[in-house]
Design goal:
Shape: elongated
Strand order of the largest sheet: 1-2-3-4
Strand content: 35-45%
Distance between the termini: 82 Å
Structural class: mainly beta
Number of helices: 1
């Protein structure tokens, strides 16, 4: 009595007590864990691509095929709404303060990061390939550390925040144990001063 066409998105609330489902007609509903509906279904106005509860379970975010992104409270009141051209998927930071939207349009292909409370864009991460699915690892400050992307090539692209230095994991003597051999390491004693500066200044130079 709710979905008469294909279901296109589904998500559990983090506490496991409720789930939301949406379909290609734009109809969505919240269900109780026993299979009954929590309230009457609602109409979004366009085919739904994604539907997500926020990590705290207080809000529900919906994404339509035309790029409409809407945030509603669990009770149904509208919080924010915006249009994101080419949007395909929504992901949240662990803290819930950041909303990440995968986008594939003529103008931009990658990940858009928004301040969730105001829907303000704060970061862009560009991809050079299609995005079929995505998962992230972030830190306690909601900063992206690692992004895993299914690119439709049979492989997973991994984007890292940290840079891998030249010579990492190459064989050779390694005085400071940073996995870069001394003959390739610009700071082979690990004191934070480039070796050429050590030679000019002197590690044990007197005060002044």
């Amino acid at each position: 009595g709710v979905h008469n066409v294909d279901v296109s998105c589904i998500d559990y609330r983090p506490d496991g007590d409720y789930l939301v489902s949406g379909d290609v007609s734009g109809r969505y509903v919240i269900w109780n864990s026993d299979g009954t509906t929590q309230s009457d279904y609602r109409e979004f106005g366009q085919e739904l691509l994604d539907c997500r509860f926020t990590p705290d379970g207080n809000d529900l975010v919906l994404l339509g095929v035309n790029g409409k992104v809407m945030s509603r409270t669990f009770a149904g009141a509208e919080n924010n709404v915006t249009e994101i051209d080419g949007a395909t998927q929504i992901t949240f930071s662990k803290t819930g303060t950041r909303m990440h939207v995968t986008t594939d349009s003529d103008d931009f292909r990658g990940l858009l990061t928004y301040d969730y409370t105001a829907f303000n864009e704060i970061k862009r991460t560009t991809f050079f390939h299609e995005v079929h699915d995505l998962a992230i690892i972030d830190d306690e400050f909601a900063r992206l550390q690692t992004i895993f992307v299914a690119a439709g090539t049979g492989e997973v692209a991994v984007y890292l925040r940290q840079l891998i230095p030249y010579g990492f994991n190459q064989p050779g003597a390694d005085l400071d144990g940073d996995s870069i051999p001394d003959d390739l390491d610009e700071d082979d004693d690990g004191d934070g001063i480039i070796d050429s500066w050590d030679d000019d200044i002197g590690c044990d130079a007197p005060d002044g």
